[in-house]
Structure formats: structure tokens, C-alpha cells
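tmp note - Alpha/Beta hydrolase fold protein
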Amino acid sequence: MNPGFHSKYMSTSDEFPIHFHGWLRIHKDGTCERFIGNNIAPPGTDSLTGVQSKDVVISLKTGVFVRLYVPKTLVPNKKLPTLIYYHGGGYVTESAASSTYQPTLNLITKESNVIIVSVNYRLAPEYLIPIAYEDSWEAIKWVATHARGHGPDSWLNDHADLENMFFVGDSVGANIAHNMAIRAGLNSDGIINLKGVILLHPYFGGKDPIGAEAGKNKQFKAFSDNLWMFANPLGIGLDDPLYNPAMDTHISVFGCAKILLCVGENDKLKDRGMNYKKVMEKSGWKGKVEVLESKGEGHVFFFSNPSCENARILRNRICTFINPIRSKA
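out:
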């Protein structure tokens, strides 16, 4: 961004060299001030669902932690599908402990009868990309240590079915989930058995505009691209394979055979989401992309209004994607 630049989404000034409106701003002394994701929801037992949650530090060196969710009723010796969840927030805001996520993840845990491992990866600009991806992979490896029941956490040892694992994320978290699935496909150790990936309103991009990005969403594309470059200033630009899946030469080794792609009809990232489906289908990957479009809804609407009908429909689709046999019963 040039000095003095101003748009609906972002601006620059002498006092605030970088300002992503409503998200964060950088003060002239370098201090980062965040405006969202600051409200913390403590773990514990949820009064609505009975779901239990707790925070577990997975690396003393980095301080990265996960928030674990388990259903109210746990049957001894019964293993449950396990979801590794990556939160959104543009790589720069939000956390696994944010009040944004707690209500929805409680509901998914209860309704789909799963265990969720929500990853608190480190944020830019303090920790630039690829740190978010590296932390996310470390969380996968930590979960995998529980495969034979000898890991550091009893909930996962006793109840996590690591033969039935899913990666899930919203917005930037969906981008991370996608890239983790490729990494899983490239990993010859077979540390996990990835059954599916769920992408909720994914954040992808690229140098060349697609769809409405060349017209009514032109300013939003500039915001999205600048956010990527802010979090990843040392990368190779807007066609970095982490940001633009079409540029990834390894995409065909995606580590599972099914993807649930959820988009919002009014989401400015919808075109990128639908383009992702085309990219995957043309890549040589042998799997299937299922699509759920929420009519009349914007970006990640299901967090701000988890009780609305479209949020309920989305969570039900997640449930049937994870539990196809149960859903047909």
C-alpha cells in the first residue's frame, strides 16, 4: 500500500502505516493493535450441549496449544471421528480460544458425535507465514502420537479414532486445511488416515482476478491480496501455491478422496471457492468435491448466528459428510 492510500477496507497514514479496517492496525512504533478475536471463551463444560473442552499445550518451545472438545457422553472403548480444526482470521487475528468459535464447535461436537482438536497456530505479523502452516503440521503430528493409545492426552488416547480423521477450517483456516491435506498426501510415513476435508468459505487468491473480482469486488480483492502479502512478505507473491491452489504442482496428491466445500451466496470469496472445485477436478486428483451453497448468506455467517436455519443445514451437512453410514440409517 502506498502512503496515503485509502479504501473501504484498508488505508495508510503516518500514524498507522498499515490499517486493515475492522481487523487490525500497525502503529508507527510497530505495535500491532487487533480489533477482532480478542474475546476469550474459557474451556469447560458447555451448559447448552454438555460438551467438555480443555486447552493442552503441545509445544513448550513455541507455546502452541490446542483446544480439545469431546461429547457429553463418552462410551468406554468406543472411538470417535476426530476433526482437526483451523480457525480463520486472515492469519492475523482470532484464536482457538476465541468466543467466535466456542458455540459452533460445541454444536458440531455434539451433533456429529466427534472429537475436535482446534489448533491455536501463531499469528502474523509477529510470526510470519509459513509459521501458521508449520504450527498446523506440528499439531497433526502431535495428534498422531496418540494412534496407539500412548500419547500425552487421555481424551485422545481413549476416544479419538485416528483411522477416521478430518481436517476442517473456515476462511484462512480452510486454506490451511487444504494445504495440510496436500502435505499429508506427500508424507510417506502415513502418520494419519485422512478420510475427508471440510472447507468452510475458504480463503484463496491469485494474481489474476476471477469472476466479480474484476468488477464489483475489485476493492475486496485488493484487501484480500494485501492481507496475504502482509502475512507473507517473504513469499513469492500472489501466485504462491499456498494462496493459489492452481499453482501447486503437488495438488494431485491431496491426502484424501473427498472434500466438502461450503460457500455463501453473498460471500465475496465465493468465486474463489467455486474456482477451487474446478482446480481440484482438473488436477488429476481422483477424489470428489461436494458443494453446499448457503443462499443469501455472507462470509462465515454461521458463527454470528449459529441458531439460524442455514447454519443448522450447514452443520447437518458436516455431520452426514463425517458419518455417511449413520446418516443413511
